[in-house]
Design brief:
By secondary structure, this protein is α+β, with helices and mostly antiparallel strands. Helix content is 40%, strand content 19%. The strands form two sheets. Strands 4-3-5-6 form a four-stranded mixed β-sheet. A two-stranded antiparallel ribbon has the order 1-2. A hairpin with a 2-residue loop joins β3 and β4.
Length: 186
């Protein structure tokens, strides 16, 4: 059996590198396998008219737990993105709201909503295929990357965001204090 090498950088950080020559290739092969399934979902969603060319697959212990594509048009639900619908399916199937043992493969870089859903579901790994620019180039405009990269002129929505003042803000904040003993997330 090959041993791990401990590497120390100039700034003092330490990393452990496996000398197992096939490890990196095995990870790449596994990623390719599951990302290909997500891409198949993307094609399937477009072919059946359910929504845009986006697919997602959620994996737990190297098995597909949930597989979905964009369902925005079919469900007339702007939140029915591939990643969100796959997360909903996985949570139902596993009967839990935390997916910390799971990984998600997405055909494209997630939009802010999908990234948020991936983050709050506590998944341990995200692998995506295409960059957001591929979707932006054909008219999709809901990517945080668009704004962050200074290309926000593609954004079609013009949303004003304002934090409430006065009594509205006070009662909205009080709900957290008044329910903290009655509700626990984890």
């Amino acid at each position: 059996m090959e041993e791990a090498k401990v590497l120390e950088s100039k700034d003092g950080t330490i990393a452990v590198a496996s000398t197992f020559s096939g490890h990196q290739q095995a990870v790449e092969d596994r990623d390719h396998k599951f990302l290909s399934k997500a891409v198949e979902e993307a094609y399937n969603g477009v072919d059946c008219g359910d929504g845009g060319p986006f697919g997602a697959v959620i994996i737990c212990n190297d098995e597909i737990v949930a597989s979905s594509h964009n369902m925005v048009l079919k469900s007339t639900d702007p939140t029915a993105h591939a990643e969100v619908t796959a997360i909903r399916e996985a949570c139902k199937k596993l009967n839990q709201i935390e997916l910390s043992d799971c990984e998600i493969y997405a055909s494209c870089e997630p939009c802010p909503m999908c990234f948020g859903a991936i983050h709050v579901s506590r998944m341990k790994r995200l692998v995506y295929g295409a960059k957001a620019e591929a979707a932006i180039a054909i008219g999709f405009d809901d990517f945080i990357a668009d704004a962050l990269r200074g290309t926000g002129f593609y954004q079609k929505a013009h949303l004003e965001i304002k934090k409430a003042d006065g009594k509205g803000a006070i009662i909205a904040e009080q709900v957290f204090e008044k329910t903290k003993e009655k509700f626990r997330m984890y």
